[in-house]
Amino acid sequence: MSPPGATIQSSRWSPKPASPPGADRPAVPVEPEAGVPAGGDRPAVAPGWQTDAMSAHGTDAYGERLDGFPPLVRQAVTLARAHGFPYSCRPEQGRLLHVLAGGARVRIGESGTGLGVGLAWLASAARPGVRLLSVERDPVRATAAAQLFATHPEVTVLTGDWTALHQHAPYDLLVLDGGGQAKTDRGADPERLLTPGGVLVVDDFSPCESWPPQFQGRPDTARLHWLDHPALRAVDLPLAGDLSAVVAVRRPR
After folding, report:
1. Single pTM value for the model
2. Partner of 142 at 20 to 30 A CA spacing, among 59, 85, 119, 206?
3. Could you tell me which of 209, 250, 223, 247 has the C-alpha nearest to residue 92?
């Protein structure tokens, strides 16, 4: 069963029978995490953590013409625009996810589905047989994203906070996106959530111009948590002039 506070929007992940045709599957409201505004999946500004300025216009970054993007990504961007959701992962982030997804052998996890743009990049490149699980705390967005992937049995969208990822760990690739506390030093445990050799992506940083990296004039403790984590080999990877991501590999046992 899924953790308390999480509901499966697509039953394809588990061996349980799917709901009968026409059956309603209402989303279950989730109590907000500390530091997360009610009804949203973007964090309030917390000490040592980046704001989401880099992705505040992520949906708009795809421009008017979507011809150069994978079909599923085009559908997800169109859905995000229809919902007025601006926080989609940018094309630079999406291309990184697209490359990394091809290396996963069994399972890919993501926190912060939004309207499924990042998940679409992942699903577009995943190998046949690889399962994808994404978690979104907003019930309306989770339901809409699940409907987008309804014809993709390898994809499951959950309504809940990031801790729902524990139910199906470990992952070959784990993407920490969106809000909540998964990205903080009190959040996701890579030794619990990743396979040995598994890849972690933590996004929405600005490029590091000094060492140690700074945020609001102080050491960026959120980024340093991942770069210095004893279980990881990590690098701060610039993706654009105003955007970077921490990409890490879990050390073998």
Report:
1. 0.80
2. 206
3. 247
